[in-house]
Amino acid sequence: MRRNFAFLLGTVTGACLTALVIGPQGAHLVAAAKAAARSDTYNQLNLFGSVFERIKTSYVEKPDDSKLMEGAINGMISALDPHSRYMNEKGWSDMQETTHGEFGGLGIEVTMEDGLVKVVTPIDDTPAAKAGMLSGDVITQIDDEVIQGMTLEQAVSRMKGPANSKIRLKVVRKGAAPIDVAIVREIIRVRPVRFKTDGGDIGYIRITRFNEQTTDGLKKAIASILKEIPPEKLTGYVVDLRNNPGGLLDQAVSVSSAFMNRGEVVSTRGRTAEETQRFTARGGDITKGKPLVVLINGGSASASEIVAGALRDHKRATLIGTRTFGKGSVQTIIPLGQGNGALALTTARYFTPSGRSIQAQGIAPDVEVLQDVPDELKGRAELKGEASMRGHLAADGAEQTGSQAYVPSNEKDDKALNAAFNLLRGGTVNANAVTAAKRAVPN
Asked: What is the SS3 assignment for 152?
């Protein structure tokens, strides 16, 4: 990023120097170049208008103007990165429902890859999770309708529906024949935070996504843990962010703040001044400095990576698991007026407090722990990550692809979770764990 910025400054400076040397003629050439660029843009817009009018007057059947325009908008956005998208009025409404934490559907977080819908992660205790949907599953058909050619919003809209209605998905898994998955929709009430105590000395907190209820849920979880375990007996906390696809930036900042007394949580850098911002911790560490371990894996994305990066850079937590997804870009939601939906446009990149980019690189754990994957799931336990997505924003450095996203259903088999418990209780999990354990305890 810094090298690119310096190059642009150099280019502008060079143009100014040329104008000073050449005088009025140079200024005329610069003005002519700008005029030519504007003319080229106008020519392209005229071309679009000509094609639009030709379709309206000559197509074999009378087309729907609104569908033509929506298709044109989606086509334009498809030339950008995979996270920029247009939402019509229904898609915009559906997104707001999801953010609030309640909607009718299956309970899966999805993305679009090569024209097909790919599961980032199923949400805990939802119809999709109960039906055995896995991270990395590729959905090719919905009720016998082929997904190829749909937008992501169109596919998601078809998967949502009234409670108790049925849906059939054709699912492709790496190394296996396509399977049909039948699911009954439910009202999805996303409970973003769950907690429990382990053995009377450790508080375990699972955060499944970052919606409007996450920070409040975290504070309630910590308060409840302290009621069950007296502070003098509490060894520390495990915060599980595995297969958490992210969510709201302000929730990532406030969740990080719950474990930090001060300091930067994340910064964003974009083309404009308003997209270049720093977000700092506020409110103080409500855990009173208790040791902290954060679990991450290939399904931890976006807001999860912000939290993991902030706590790691401030030496507030030890990260255990596998490298995160690498979704380090900011989407700004731009409402387009009554009845016109909204635009989710990528406007900046995320950087951890130490200045490291998350985009297409992810967050590496302090202690890597690989799970033992059942034979029937081998070859399907990894997510390729952001760097494998077509049209993704380039990394600010070497790109990283592929990371394990499997979490055993039986906690006794969960090597990362057991390593976290062992580390908090003073044990080690590999040669690097001693140093990591010391880092987890504030000075």
From this structure: helix
